Structure formats: structure tokens, C-alpha cells
Amino acid sequence: MGAVVSCIQSCLRTIGRTIMAIINGIGGVIMAIVNGIVSFLDIIVGCLTCNRAGGRRHRTHGATTTGRSRGFGRRRHVGTTSTI
Q1: CA-based Rg of the chain, rounded to a whole angstrom?
Q2: How many whole angstroms separate alpha carbon 58 and alpha carbon 44?
Q3: pLDDT of 64-74, one tens digit each?
Q4: Quick one: where's region Disordered (predicted)?
Q5: Which of 46, 47, 64 is nearest to 55 (CA)?
Q6: I want to staple 53 with a disulfide (CB 3.0 to 4.6 A). Which of 6, 29, 49, 83 is the partner?
Q7: What single DSSP character describes residue 82?
Q8: Are 45 and 53 spatial neighbours (Cβ–Cβ below 8 Å)?
Q9: What is the tens place of the pLDDT at every residue in 25-36?
């Protein structure tokens, strides 16, 4: 009698796990669709506002008059071995 109950329990457990996997799959598809719609609307709003909305500001820290920031570009050292 215990073997029959154990078999029924495992069958019901398998059915429950299958239903939960289907529900998780449907939830994942719905989340992907919603995220796609939100991204699309973000692109449209960004285009209409010239990407000025949302608080994303591009700041240049330490930029020189030539447009290059400190630490980048070609460095020229005085007194290297090539002058010897």
C-alpha cells in the first residue's frame, strides 16, 4: 500500500513541477515583451527630447582646450635615450 501512495505522490509532484515550469516560461515571455516595450518607448522619448531626459548628463572632467583630457594621447618625454 505504501508503494502505491509513493507512486501517486511522485506522479503528482511531477505534474506540479511541469505546471510550474510552464508558468515560469509564460512569465519569462511576458517579462521579455514588457521589457522590449519599455526599451522601445525609452528610445522614442529619447529621440523626441534629443536624449536630454532621464538625468543622463555627459560631463567632461579635466578637458583641455584641444578637446583631449589629461592622461590621454601621445606623451613626449624630454631627455630620453633617443637624444643621446
Answers
A1: 31
A2: 20
A3: 555 555 555 56
A4: 58-84
A5: 46
A6: 49
A7: G
A8: yes
A9: 999 999 999 999
Ranges of the chain with pLDDT below 70: 53-84
CA distance 20 to 14: 10
Q: How far is 36 from 70, CA to CA, in rounded Å?
A: 39
What value, to the nearest 5°, has the Cα angle with vertex 34 and ends 33 and 40?
90
DSSP 1: -
Give whole-number Cα distances, 58 to 29, 47, 76, in Å.
34, 17, 29
Residue length, the chain? 84
**20: its cell numbers:** 510550474
- Distance CA(27)–CA(39), nearest Å, equals 18
